Predict the 3D structure of the following.
Amino acid sequence: MIKRVLITGANAGLGKETAKQLTNNPQIEKVYLGCRNKEKAQAAKMELEQSTGKHIFEILIIDVSNQESVIEAVQKLECSVDALIMNAGGTGGQNFNKLTPDGVTEIFAVNLLGHCLLTQALLKSGKLTQVAIYAGSEAARGVKEMGMKRPHLPTSSEEEFAAICDGSFFGEVKDATIPYGTIKYMGALWMSAMARRHPHVKFVTMSPGATTGTEGFNTLPWFKQYFMKSMMRIMLLLNKVHTVEVGANRYLQGLFNHDLESGLFYASERGLTGNLSDQSLLFPDLKIERYQENAYLAIQRFL
């Protein structure tokens, strides 16, 4: 039974909405709001308590782009959590391609490396017991509607995945949406590898879908933000995307739907919204264990 849940990126958007929806489940006793900024976290906690009437929220300061912050957060966590929702992410800010002290790009650190460390540290300390949800994206198998091409790796070797980590695979790109989909693809592969290593925990990669009201575009240049958000509003009218409430509910399906299998990546069956499906049916590379292992091993180099 899931009683305690930790959500990263919980002060706004999908993370906050997921925390809110969890209060509808009477078995939930504690929701940890994993946030970088204390003031924003406190404001989110107050808003959630007022809107839900529940006082089950606790702030955990964590910056998933900083490995020291991740380790400190795990150490400060008072008790184990039954479930982890790795929601924090985005396009990595204005300097998304800049290397962190750990040798990976900012966009890789916030979308994947920090969550890898968090998950493994929680498991090592016995503080994650049942379910891990990673925020996937349809971009991981290509999205024609958003102009995102399917990730293409000539060899899918460990070295090639390491080049995704440090950004050298992409060269001097100026558009954060170019590495984003490939990083999310690598995240889904890593989750599959983790599912084999830790069979007592359910690992589900779940895309919240194309979601209005998300914070994901806020670190793009202003003109790119305007373009993407305008496109999202138009696509919502055409029923090509959905609301933040629907996106957050997908995370809850990952937690509570027993029909979803560990190690698989679920996202829209077609396009950016609608029914969920196993994405390996659309992109068979997701199922190849050699690719999963190479992605896993490449990540370990930077932890």
